[in-house]
Structure formats: C-alpha cells, structure tokens
Amino acid sequence: AGLAYAVNVTANGTTILDFSLHGFGDTSDAGVLNAAIQVGAVSGTVITGNALGTGPFDLTDPGIAERNARHVILDGTDGSTIQGNVMGFAQYQGLYLRNDADLNIISGNE
C-alpha cells in the first residue's frame, strides 16, 4: 500500500490509544517487514483501543489497496501490552513477533 508504517515506536513507555490505521506497509512482498505500528527493542509499550486494518466505526474490508501489510510488529520488544484492539484484513499477519520479543501481554483483541 503506502507508507512503511504509521507509528514507529523507539521510546520506552509509549502508549498508542484510539487510532484507526489502514493502508500501511508493502503488501506486494511478504519479505518486507513493515506494519501500521512497528515497535522496536523497547519496553512498556501499550497498544489499546485501536481499529487496525479497518475504519473506526465498522469492521469492513477496506480493499486490497488499503490493507495493512501487518498491523503490529514487535521487534525485540519486551514487556509490552496489546489489548482491546480490533484487528482485521491484514495482508499477511495481524501481529508479528520477532527477535526475542518476550514477556508481552496480548489479550482481548478481536
């Protein structure tokens, strides 16, 4: 789709709340690792109450041109929380953990 990511988290203790994000990342190549929200090797990130891959008011497919490649990538991220989000219509994975992303809480997402 468009830009590689909407939010690139590089600081500890960041909160991402009440966003609607779709149309981010390269959906033409599964080997390109980008997402609407990309979290690096930090801790304490909270991602909650967001609509990822769809609009804020309804759960409908925005179409191939507006899908996120992935919704969230945790890349070496520790001790973060991803909860209470609506995630739908990713081109590849909704949530992708890599490089020893440990001790993260992932719960209550749809």
Summarize this structure briefly.
This protein has no helices and 11 strands. With 110 residues, it is mostly beta strands.
Please characterize this protein's 3D structure.
Strands 1-4-7-10 form a 4-stranded parallel beta sheet, with no helix packed on it. The model has no long low-confidence stretch (mean pLDDT 91). The chain has 110 residues and is mainly beta. It has strands at residues 7-9, 15-17, 20-21, 37-39, 46-48, 51-52, 72-75, 81-83, 86-87, 95-98, 105-107. The two termini are 23 Å apart. 0% of the residues lie in helices and 29% in strands.
Structural class: mainly beta
Q: What low-confidence regions span 5 or more consecutive residues with pLDDT below 50?
A: none
- Main sheet strand line-up: 1-4-7-10
For the termini, the CA-CA separation is 23 Å
How much of the polypeptide forms β-strand, as a percent range? 25-35%
Number of beta strands: 11
Which terms would index this structure?
single chain; about 110 residues; mainly beta; 11 strands; globular; 4-stranded parallel beta sheet; about 0% helix
What's the helix and strand layout?
Elements: E1 7-9, E2 15-17, E3 20-21, E4 37-39, E5 46-48, E6 51-52, E7 72-75, E8 81-83, E9 86-87, E10 95-98, E11 105-107
Parallel strand pairs: 1-4, 2-5, 3-6, 4-7, 5-8, 6-9, 7-10, 8-11
